[in-house]
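Model it.
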Amino acid sequence: MVDLTGFEDLIILALTALLPALGYLLWVRQSERLGHEPWSLLMRLFLFGALGATVIAAILEVVIVDLGTAVSQKYPGPEFGFLNGSSTLGAFFLVLVVAPFVEEALKAAGVVQYRSSMRRLADGPVFGAAVGLGFGFFETLLYGLGAFLAGGLAAGIALILVRSISSVLLHGSSTAMFGRGYASNVYEKKTGAAGAYYLLAVGMHASFNALASLGAIVVVLGLPSGIGTYADLIGLLAAIAFAFAAIEHVRTIIARSDFPGADAVHPRYRPPAARRLQPPVRR
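Modeled.
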């Protein structure tokens, strides 16, 4: 008989990574008040992030690290030490600078690629969230597969679950913010908004990575290793809180930009909760 255990484990890992990402996408989609984006479009955006941006980002980051290492070896001065991918400084440079700029640019390309499908301001952050969540799903699956190969199914599932409540949300919310800026550039004619919000997305990404790397940063600063252990936990909890706060902010932006000024235009355009809060009109 053919042993299907390994294949079944891969299916379990894939579903463990996929279902939270799709759940978040549904959550974001429901933030729109004037009609939801079709799932066919959202899944194309999701796949762009998963199979396009993730793979290209991985290739580019490897190339950049290899080039940086070559430069640092050719010019061994301390001013080029951060380019050495095998050094501690090189690892931080990759996590805090290279990855945020490269990955946010490639995810942003997915939003721009589907610009012809945008109908209103709120579509920008929804499109960005779909691309980012796709990216987060596939990246998380790859990390989970690595943990699976090293420590078995339980290790793979554990890593995927932790990343699903942190990194996946971060990727969705950071690219959603770029989408907000890009849509503002298109619909509100705010010149430079796309570039400004791209830098915001990069900043969010780098800040999240810094929180997630807090334990390693503490060790590099020369503090006792015992403090590093606590810093790992504190950094992880802070990163999770940051990711949830970011995605909730995105949902608020989507709801408010779906129909700007609607609450002041006519009561029937307001969401039900807002209508219930209005005092009765005296005649």
